[in-house]
Q: What sequence folds into this?
């Protein structure tokens, strides 16, 4: 199940009542209000939401399984981010039974940075990632190199504080993070403000927009942006344009898209399509245009340690004056 206890149990009871046909009042109201749409259709487009004790859980009932996506403070930096996926293929929603497959995140889904003050960009200091799940040692250890400054949750357009549970069509999660540079990790001297907006939709997708604002004159040397943790249910990764799949590879290998033309999707799949996660990058605006990617580098790639990435800034430095901002947009689709 999940650690949200009674609140999520109440949401599951709502589902059970719907499955057993107890939504008659909603049906009457829906028919009266819409005339063309019954409440069972309307309710099918909602998902369970629990925001409690600093954790946000969104739980979906799909035709062949249930899916939970949870957000909470993660890693050495305690960044508020995607912290867990869980699946269950049983046909009946249980109040007590835990999910059969639970996958806690062990890494970041919104990328960390090679970033420094502009004046230190040519120094001999080794570059290492900061932000995300990366501490002052360059990996997941050491002192924090980032912090979450603010978290705001709205459910169907209404701001919510911790302690909410119910059904929703749209959850908007806004997270503001502060990021240090590799030239001063662990010092509390922040170089970037990272604003992440997640829009969790009833079709089991999450739209993401990341806006990066320079708090000083800085240079970003490397930044992948949109990425994924490739859980054990996935056995293949495909790279695709809007119209075709270009190549498919084993998921736990080092691989990349075979060509860059129009690539905008990374598709993770497992058990012959029973589980699928699609990463879709908006390549028409922002950093998604790959203007800061050097010739000869792949726009999307995967690593044998179980991650897939887009490749937004690599080989061409991105210099930002204090107050300047850049952004990217993408969508995670769960099937």
A:
């Amino acid at each position: 199940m999940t650690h949200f206890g009674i609140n999520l149990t109440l949401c599951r009871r709502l589902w059970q009542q719907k499955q057993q046909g107890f939504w008659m009042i909603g049906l009457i109201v829906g028919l009266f209000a819409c005339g063309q749409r019954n409440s069972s259709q309307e309710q099918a487009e909602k998902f369970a939401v629990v925001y409690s004790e600093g954790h946000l859980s969104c739980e979906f009932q799909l035709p062949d399984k249930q899916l939970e996506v949870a957000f909470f403070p993660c890693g050495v930096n305690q960044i508020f981010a995607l912290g867990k996926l869980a699946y269950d293929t049983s046909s009946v929603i249980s109040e007590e039974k835990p999910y059969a497959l639970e996958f806690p995140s062990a890494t970041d889904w919104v990328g960390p940075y090679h970033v420094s003050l502009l004046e230190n960009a040519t120094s001999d200091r080794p570059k290492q990632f900061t932000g995300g799940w990366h501490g002052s040692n360059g990996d997941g250890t050491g002192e924090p190199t980032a912090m979450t400054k603010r978290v705001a949750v709205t459910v169907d357009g209404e701001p919510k504080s911790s302690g909410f549970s119910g059904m929703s069509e749209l959850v908007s999660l806004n997270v503001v993070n502060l990021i240090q540079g590799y030239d001063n990790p662990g010092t509390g001297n922040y170089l970037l403000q990272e604003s992440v907006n997640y829009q969790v939709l009833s079709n089991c997708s999450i739209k993401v927009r990341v806006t990066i604002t320079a708090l000083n004159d800085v240079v970003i040397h490397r930044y992948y942006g949109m990425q994924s943790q490739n859980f054990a249910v996935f056995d293949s990764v495909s790279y695709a344009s809007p119209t075709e799949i270009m190549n498919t590879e084993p998921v736990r290998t080092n691989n990349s898209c075979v060509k860059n033309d129009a690539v905008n999707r990374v598709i993770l799949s497992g058990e012959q399509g029973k589980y699928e996660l699609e990463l879709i990058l908006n390549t028409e605006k922002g950093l998604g245009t790959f203007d800061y990617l050097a010739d000869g580098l792949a726009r999307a790639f995967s690593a044998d340690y179980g991650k897939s990435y887009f490749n937004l800034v690599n080989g061409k430095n991105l210099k930002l004056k204090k107050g300047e901002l850049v952004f990217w947009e993408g969508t995670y689709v769960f099937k």
